[in-house]
Amino acid sequence: MPRSANQKLKLLLLLDVLRRQSDEQHPMSVPRLIEALSAQGVQAERKSVYDDIEALRLYGADILQKRGRDGGYYIGQRDFELPELKLLVDSVQSSKFITQKKTLSLIRKIESLASVHDARLLERQVYVRNRVKSMNESVYYNVDEISGAISRDRAIRFRYYELTPERRQRFRRDGAYYEVSPFALIWDDENYYLLAWEDARGELRHYRVDKMASISALDRERQGKAAFAAVDMSAYSQKVFGMFNGERRSVRLRFAAHLAGAVFDRFGKDVMLIPDASGESFTVTVEVAVSTQFFGWLFGFGAEAEVLEPADVREQMLAQARAVTALYE
Predict the structure, then answer these.
(1) Under 8 Å between Cβ of 192 and 97
(2) Residue 259 domain-assigned (yes or no)
(3) CA-to-CA dists, residue 117 to 36, 88, 89, 120, 289, angstroms
């Protein structure tokens, strides 16, 4: 048989065919493999396909054989199993910081890691239309720019905006640039945040990545490294509610007994709950960033949650409650 123009690519194309078109439920017979190669301009004989499969196995490809009437060859172990790909798809489609356009693009790429048959199963899991998504198409590249600056130990500058009721960008500080030293990207409450040392204020602060624009690295090293080294990143997002900045305080709270799970979810399973004598409630002392968002979280439990100490935080909670009540009087 004369050699075709793509003959040198035969091994690679055969592996690609097996990866994209075969799985345990859909093995491919040798005649079907020959047909698939022919469709790509590569002529092959039965014996050469057997030899190529053996070569790919020696290379490390997990090519298995299913015997019987509907048998054939298929890829066994893949880099990502179907449940793992479903988890990735769910994470991407539920992330508000990724735009709808970028979400669909990423999901198509994730699907390419599975066989075409499993990819159809992934498609049935995709529900992107009408989901709340970021309006900032550049957020995907913002993450890359920030990550690059962190790896090079460089400060960055950017402009920070908020959306008006007309959906227009309104830049804070009259459009002036923020100059910060980036340290970590945090995914919290379905948003991406940058934790950085703000040089002008001399403190660690966080910023919504999808609200950042015109990011660029500066030609100077990062500051605030000692402050960042003192941060317990595993507990940071538990203390900072919704990533709203606020004064860090130690507060003692009372909850109804059945809310223990909600407290563990928020502050971790290592917090100490002290039950009262009746067993109907418990108290817990935690460190939080006192903010409107923190009070809002407590409001969600109604009369089953209470700020006990310190007195000034309790007064702030009362003031919040009165302000909300005044709207309805």
Answers:
(1) yes
(2) yes
(3) 16, 18, 16, 5, 48
